[in-house]
Amino acid sequence: MAALVLGIVSPVTFTGKLWPNSRSRRRMVVKCSNERRILFNRIAPVYDNLNDLLSLGQHRIWKNMTVSWSGARTGDNVLDLCCGSGDLAFLLSEKVGSTGKVMGLDFSSEQLAVAASRQSLKARSCYKCIEWIEGDAIDLPFDDCEFDAITMGYGLRNVVDRLRAMKEMYRVLKPGSRVSILDFNKSNQSVTTFMQDWMIDNVVVPVASVYGLAKEYEYLKYSINGYLTGEELETLALEAGFSSARHYEISGGFMGNLVAVR
């Protein structure tokens, strides 16, 4: 359920640098409710602990799969959208190495602060290639054909205009490159849907309530119900211009990963 992305102000990295192009210096417009922004800022301090607890650590497996499907390689310039506290960005940096570059973009300043703090504690040289930036998933502050791969974890479900977000990913990807998008799966199977709802109501929300975040995590079920099925996600990617798209159900159909090629 990594943080939503929307525009707030001109993007600001957390390494003291600005991304050097004209789009990044343009002032952005807020395109989502302030309530959602507050929600993701509130859960930032305990987000990682809850991910581990609620998924029994499996989210690390799913995220490794997402990065593998992205096709990122040594020396690549890659982007992680809705980067949250940085899990996918850190995995990407291990793929691209110290000769590559990773941009982690999110709308939540609190999530980005956590990501930057985690980065400062990591010793490997590859982690120094990451820059964090506040930005808008539907108006990315990057040039056309700039990235060799894009990942997005638990973010497309929350973006205000999914088609526009997909078109922006298409725009900034190099030809032949891939986007890999991980999220909860909106299943067509009634049993899977029932179990997913039951887990949220009887496990996720009660555990979140221990941290005083019950209301924040109640939002999860409604956002999944309003999301797209795997087939609909494939159609969305093709409509955005991607040459091919395939959605994979993982973890018994509770999660899904869309892979689209520019």
Overview in brief:
This protein is of the alpha/beta class and 262 residues long.
Mass-distribution shape: globular
Kindly report how far apart the N and C termini lie.
25 Å
Counting helices, strands and paired strands, the structural category is alpha/beta
- Rg value: 17 Å
Helix content: 40-55%
Low-confidence stretches: 1-33
Q: Report on the biggest sheet.
A: 7 strands, mixed
Give the count of helical stretches.
Answer: 9
The pLDDT mean sits at 83
Query: Which percent band covers the strand fraction?
Result: 15-25%
Oligomer: single chain
**Secondary structure: number of strands:** 7
Give the H and E element order. Answer: HHHEHEHEEHEHHHEE
Strand order of the largest sheet: 3-2-1-4-5-7-6
Write the layout of secondary structure elements.
Blueprint: H1 34-43, H2 47-55, H3 59-70, E1 77-81, H4 87-96, E2 101-106, H5 109-120, E3 130-134, E4 147-153, H6 162-172, E5 173-184, H7 190-210, H8 214-225, H9 230-239, E6 244-250, E7 255-261
Parallel strand pairs: 1-2, 1-4, 2-3, 4-5
Antiparallel strand pairs: 5-7, 6-7
Helix pairs in contact: 3-4, 7-8
